[in-house]
Amino acid sequence: MKKVIITAALILSSAGCFASDEDGKYEQGDCIMANDTSYSWFGEFAKVEAYSRIKGFAGPQYILYFPSYKASAVVFGPEIEDHTIKVGNNYCQR
Known about the structure:
The protein is an alpha+beta fold and 94 residues long. It contains one helix and five strands. A five-stranded antiparallel beta sheet has the order 4-3-2-1-5, with no helix packed on it. The N and C termini lie far apart (57 Å).
């Protein structure tokens, strides 16, 4: 019985590791702001439209909508999580 419990725990923890690759810090509908001065959209707001895999990109990516900023890109890697903060959704109203 002890072996069954250990095996089940290992399988469940492994499954959790695989699933975590697809979970981003932000969810669809969140409004975020770049807080890193090296970002071209520093101080601007973006709405998270999706976080998913896109053919031609490595791993899941964020697809952002900028309500009041003309961005040169709308697809961003998960590294933006370290350079952005979540703000109130009222900042991303269309």
